[in-house]
Specification:
The protein has 393 residues and is an alpha/beta fold. Helices cover 39% and strands 19% of the residues.
């Protein structure tokens, strides 16, 4: 437990953090990678270049300082961070390294304000946060290691099937090289995949949603090819791999998953955000319940419309599944043209008693959440997954 004095001091630094902004986290990462370059094998360096990681870290840092006297407010945020850490195999020995660079950054950027008293308070505060994260992540690691099909660290998987789903998306079935079982995942969770792309200086770890229900034998991820040369270093590398290629996987993780209840489910996606929804959909339709499912998807055009035939087949086979598609450029396989407008199907949705799951580009998710709230859907019934560093919608 932190003393009242420590809490008071840490909270008093919130205006300083706000004034410094992402300069703090930019300096932190430069310091971190300068002194510990080996950590570039863990961190997503593309997010460093885009500034997304610095922005996310600053928001997390400010939120922790602001709510240090009521950490229950941060419960969901910390769970999200813990799962992401588990997908990269962050270990207890990493925390002192990060903490040392954080304190060093604050001392260097705020030499007058960051007095010995303030430094002591922040060291105490960081130690508490580290203890919380280490404890929660240890539980995740224990679950992944001790359950049937589980493992610790990386495990080798071979690409046993490569299936083109659309102009940009290809699915990869990943089967363990050792031929043994794989641990069950919750529908909506992701895998951490570790590769070293051609000509890359460092190993890269990325997270990809599992796009099929659990079967105990293998996983499937569905990956979008990025058209911009500077984007998607790992995604585009995966597209170059053939069946028989071997990759390393960390166990499934993620706090975005299908709730275990019998409430009607509405799965809303855009583009490759469809991937976690496919695992949810397959799981729901394999359930013996009569749970109603609505599947809403948006993409640019017919050529980019992944899993269209699969969805049509499932809708024909299951009367409790309803699905609608929006194509921005229009097409014969679209129910609606243009951007997704929930109002067009609002009368068919369980606005008062359903769970709504959203995944896609940030702008899309923000727009959909705004539409749902305007239709009086409860905020706690709206769940979303963010590819990359987290942002609030």
């Amino acid at each position: 437990m932190l003393s009242d004095k420590t809490i008071e001091i840490v909270k008093s630094t919130v205006p300083l953090l706000a004034q410094a902004g992402t300069v703090v986290t930019e300096h932190f990462y430069k310091r971190l990678f300068s002194h510990n370059p080996e950590l570039q094998d863990i961190f997503n360096m593309a997010n460093q270049q885009s500034g997304r990681q610095q922005f996310a870290l600053f928001n997390a840092l400010a939120a922790y300082a602001q709510n240090i006297d009521n950490l229950d407010v941060l419960k969901e945020s910390l769970a999200r961070i813990n799962h992401k850490h588990a997908s990269m195999h962050i270990l207890p020995e990493h925390y002192p390294i990060v903490g040392g660079h954080l304190i060093g950054t604050l001392k260097e950027l705020l030499p007058e304000q960051f007095t010995p008293e303030v430094e002591y308070a922040w060291r105490e505060a960081y130690a508490l946060l580290a203890d919380i994260c280490i404890t929660e992540e240890a539980a995740l690691y224990a679950h992944s290691k001790n359950n049937i099909g589980g493992w610790s660290g990386t495990r080798q998987f071979v690409i046993t099937n490569k299936q083109v789903e659309s102009e940009l998306v290809t699915s990869f079935t990943l089967t363990p090289v050792d031929g043994k079982a794989v641990i069950t995942h919750k529908p909506g969770q992701y895998l951490g995949i570790k590769v070293k792309p051609t000509d890359a200086q460092y190993s890269e770890i990325r997270q990809y949603s599992i796009s099929q229900k659990s079967n105990g034998e293998n996983y499937r991820i569905s990956v979008k090819k990025e058209l911009l040369p500077a984007a998607g270093i790992v995604s585009n590398y995966l597209h170059t791999l053939d069946e028989g290629s071997v990759v390393e996987l960390y166990p499934p993780a993620g706090d975005f998953f299908l709730r275990a209840n019998n409430k009607p489910a509405v799965l809303i996606s855009a583009g490759v955000g469809q991937t976690p929804m496919l695992a949810m959909l397959q799981t729901l339709l394999s359930d013996a319940s009569n749970q109603a499912v609505t599947y809403l998807h948006a993409c640019e055009n017919t050529e980019q419309h992944s899993f269209n035939k699969f969805l049509s087949t499932q809708a024909a086979a299951h009367s409790r599944l309803t699905h609608y598609t929006w194509l921005n450029q229009g097409g014969s396989d679209a129910n609606f043209n243009g951007l997704m407008d929930i109002n067009k199907v609002a009368q068919q949705l369980p606005l008062n008693d359903g769970d709504f799951y959203i995944c896609g580009p940030v702008g899309f998710m923000a727009a959909i959440k705004k539409q749902l709230l305007a239709l009086s859907v409860a905020d706690e019934s709206i769940h979303y997954e963010m590819f990359g560093p987290h942002q609030d919608l």
